[in-house]
Amino acid sequence: xxxxxxxxxxxxxxxxxRVVDGEQVDLTxxxxxxxxxxxxxxxxxxxLDEEANGYKTARVxxxxxxxxxxxxxxxxNGTLDNTGEFFTALKEVKDNNPKPGA
Length: 102
What we know:
The protein is mainly alpha-helical. It is 62% helix and 8% strand. The protein has four helices and two strands, in the order αββααα. The chain has a two-stranded antiparallel ribbon with strand order 1-2. β1 and β2 (23-26) form a beta hairpin. It is elongated.
């Protein structure tokens, strides 16, 4: 589950300055708060995206050549159904990395 904005903000080291035209300038309290809020918002968005879509990157399917080979063997063996090598190989990947809420 995603962290709260306050938890995320607490995890960052607050910036104290910025460089303008090669000169170090101290940030105001408002600028520090705005920067921390922006960082926290971005991190929260990343966490929520990972929760919703992380399964997509976690799913590593066999290479296409291997999939086609399994498909050919299933057709050749008469097992082009949910018992064949092609289906079971892809189903294993999906079962090990389910969609959230599925």
